[in-house]
Prior knowledge:
Layout: H1 7-17, H2 21-26, E1 34-38, H3 45-51, E2 57-59, E3 62-68, H4 78-81, E4 85-87, H5 94-99, E5 106-109, H6 116-125, E6 130-134, H7 140-150, E7 156-159, H8 163-169, E8 174-180, H9 193-197, H10 204-221, E9 222-232, H11 241-250, E10 254-256, E11 266-267, H12 275-280, E12 288-290, E13 300-307, H13 315-322, H14 325-329, E14 331-332, H15 334-342, H16 366-369, E15 371-372, E16 375-376, H17 380-404, E17 409-410, E18 412-416, E19 419-423, E20 435-437, E21 440-446, E22 449-452, H18 454-459, E23 467-471, H19 476-482, E24 487-488, E25 494-496, E26 504-510, E27 513-521, E28 524-527
Parallel strand pairs: 5-6, 5-8, 6-7, 8-9, 23-26
Antiparallel strand pairs: 1-3, 1-4, 2-3, 7-20, 9-13, 10-13, 11-12, 12-13, 14-17, 15-16, 18-19, 19-21, 21-22, 23-25, 24-28, 26-27, 27-28
Amino acid sequence: MGVQLPTAFVKRMEQLLSDEFEAFMAAYDHTPHAGIRVNTLKIPVEAFKAISPFELRPIPWCSTGFYIPHGTKPGLHPYYHAGLYYVQEPSAMSPVELLNVAVDEAVLDLCAAPGGKSTQIAAKLQGSGVLVTNDISPERTKALAKNVELYGVRNAVVLNESPDRIAEAFPHFFDKILIDAPCSGEGMFRKDEDMAKQWETHSVEKCVVMQRDILRVAASMLSDGGRIVYSTCTFAPEENEGMIAEFLAAHPDFEVIPVPLGAGFAPGHPEWVSEAVASAHPELRGTARLWPHLVEGEGHFIAVLQHQGSRAATAEKALNMDAERPRRKQHLSVEESLTRNGQSRHAVGEPRRNKKGMDGKPGKGATARGFEGGKSRFSKEGLKSAARASHDVMESYRQFVQEQLEVSFAGYTVVYGDRIYQSPLSSHRLDGLKVVRPGWFIGTDKKGRFVPSHPLAVALRPSEAVRSINLSSSDAEAIRYLKGETLSIPVQRITLKNDAQPKGYVLICIDGYTAGWGKWQDGMLKNEYPTGWRWTSV
């Protein structure tokens, strides 16, 4: 056996699985399955299948997911850098499929890093509604924010908060909530041997305490008739059926929606918690377990919890949802967006955050000007100065958009210091929260000159920029661009719209899919691909 499993874990699984134990243990001799999920924000599934550089085999429970051969390195292809797919363990694709996300909904991914499930939710929203994606670890939110940006998500807010703090800001707000709960990770032992080594210190008992609190708080953020999907990557019944039994006992207005048991999914086992739990909650057999000896994937547990809609519609809920949601559905022209939101609704403060700021770089802009937690510490003159500065930032943004883009923005244009974001939420919603990204990061004002961001580029479509250049994935030129090199590009290769001149910012595409910015002048393309995103061979 390739993985050294903890003795206590093996004994417990033998007791629980009985006749299936030998098959379960034999699965640890097999190579873990690799998968990718097509990013339908950028490319339809059928279109990707037509250009895929990999052999693809469908994953039964996810229509956008595919197995790829062992040893394939999908992170070393230009399509990965263009955000056409997410590399994801196959069984991890199942919880979002059961969340049943619909367009225009408000969705919370509560324990989101590194962001695979958030990008899956975003693809289902297709730019509508709002996605609030959160992780309590400041370090892990770096990967979360990067993945949300790489995959061209326009309608996400990224937080670094505790569930309780989010609940204070969003009572009964979300239509759907995903809890991919922190757990003892037993289902990942085959894929990650470090999880097996850390199992005894990352104990089931510690995880149960966290899971109990997360579920309790999540219920207070869910709207009437909403849905929670709770998942773990562990086999421990205390963290799975036991958690759901506790939740149902405390929340009689929720019910378990049975998970279809096709594609190798197995039913839950309430009797593994206790006979009393099995007797009181037979519906727990409607939860699902994914076993590595039954499916081509790692271990997972999933429970679908549906609110029965019995809460009274409070005035607070009406304020939170009914007043906000029509704005999320608006798709404004550039001029309407900038006029309605940029001047009257832009933020002249900044959400509370760590000392390094929203991008992990030394804080500047609004932080340096004396804002924190969305509240001003300015005198009246200081406030007027900040308002003028924000107005100047908006003017440089307005000019860039009018000259360079043909795009409709939804939601609110907000200014945090010298940075501009397009947010699905009004800025007051985020006051006092630790915000990593208040929305789609559009760009930065540098002394009156607007510099478009990389996340703006990768979320655009080629038709939304007045200049674009297409590179081929089969040509070394695309790799050179992704490495940050300057390229020689003749003017004939630039696609121009609206009588635009070739000189200036150019949207760079790979096989027709946006990948970043360049600046063209006199046959040379200055590379604007950010250092932290560049191609590496390792």
